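Running this now, will post back.
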Amino acid sequence: MSKEGVAHKSNNIKKWTRFLLTSIIQGAIAVSLTIMLAAFVISTPYAGYLISSILDNPPIGYIEITALAGLGLYFLAGVLGTGVASFFYHYFESYLGKNFDGLTNGLSWIHLILTNIGISSASLTMIYAGYIGDLAIFPKEIGGFGITAMQSSQILMNQFIVPVGAMLLVAAIGAICGGLGFIITFVKR
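Update: finished.
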């Protein structure tokens, strides 16, 4: 391979490192959130109360699932999805020889920014909603709001549906832009 080819390949690797770095940062945030949630569960009486509450009233489990689904979304789409996308971009440029430039480079930036903003904010909002929903059902004696699961859903949790949906739409627009960039790059000569 010529010096020019090696330099071009090196630039492509550096170019798509932004996705890998974002994935690493997202991973660090996700692990930090997991540690904080685990520390909270371990160090407070809430876990025992939550388990007994779920056994007494199974619908309460749906409130908890909101937080866990948010954390799962963050790990899968935010961390793993961003890392996998970097390998797609790298594969296109380094192995297929199809460069992302001009419009397609712009679409890749939109993909990176909107997808990560959308997934991160939707996930963190879901985690927060689950936490607030759990807190709401606990008795006032242990720091909760002392309301029922139905009240928690109607008063607190429902207000998060539209913002989470909007944030997921932002993420989807980012993913669509990335997909368009892949298609345009793949079909060009």
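The chain has one domain: 3-187. More later if anyone needs it.
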